[in-house]
Amino acid sequence: MMSSQLVSIPTARTINYLRVSITDRCNLRCCYCMPEGGVPVMPHDEILSYEEMLRLIGVFVQGGIRKVRITGGEPLVRKDSVDLLGRLHQMPGLEEVTLTTNGVLLKEFAAQLKKSGVSRLNISLDSLKPERFARITRRDRFEDVVAGIHLAESLGFDPIKINVVMMRGVNDDEIGDFFRLAKERPYQIRFIEYMPVGAANSWDPAQFVSSKEIYETISQFGRLEPLEAGMLDGPARCYRVVEGAGQIGLISALSDHFCERCNRLRLTADGQLRTCLFSDAEVSLKAPLRQGGSDEELLDLIRLAIKNKPKGHGLQRVRPEACLRQMSRIGG
Ligand code: SAM
Ligand code: SF4
Question: pTM of the prediction?
Fold first, then answer.
């Protein structure tokens, strides 16, 4: 049965999910994420080595983290990123290791990824039309991404989640097409509200499409059945496509106060801990790490940051430059 409103999900806030950006570099230039000319890349020695990341992530696990998502920039452009994922997969205490990628290099890395033990993938794809994809990402790589998704499916990645940033006048006429894709293929199509992030971002309220509107549009095409949210799911509201192979996810970063159930922390490639995507308050873990800090000292810093995690981002009073660090340097 199509429920009459967005499904509600639990409100408890257990901080168990860490997103780790392993690079600020990217092979695309998505209009909502990066300026056309890119952003100055961080100096190599500012970026944490994999050994440093693994040590920090081990400390986060001691602090209660159970799920790690590797992100970027584009994580697959950093050398040996698949090895890092494999090592995380082996880390005691971690229950889930996932990757968010733009899919451009998936054809090259999908088989190795599968071998490394990682089976959960989020792939960003904002349009099913090649020319439009090229306009949004400023690169002509649509065929590579689609081939990567097909390969991932044939290799048995499960789940495959497709992230779609919805923008009015850009791709909002494709909600039905994406719904049909979720009907035909076993993918979870995740519609993400367009967020005002990054100093060079030209976020425009007129382009904003709420999850509620997306839900209502989908209901013209078919039926959805709410799914229960799991402990590690975070704020997405998920639905099964009735009589279909896949699912729909709605991520209402702006229109809904999901702060009270936000279970995530973010670690940037240069070793800064962010407790809220929309707050520029950062705690440097790189400094104490490189100055020989013990695990206990790092854990104390992490615990203090969690204690001070904002209760809400207040973005319902939307400011065009909600946070100054570029999205490609945070990892979404
Ligand atoms: N490069 C990878 C990718 O695109 O999947 C990983 C990093 S990207 C920053 C992570 C996610 O953030 C992507 O799904 C992207 O669409 C989303 N994202 C970036 N900027 C956004 C914005 N302004 N509003 C909403 N989502 C955004
Ligand atoms: Fe790159 Fe991902 Fe940002 Fe697009 S959204 S520019 S693929 S980091």
Answer: 0.92
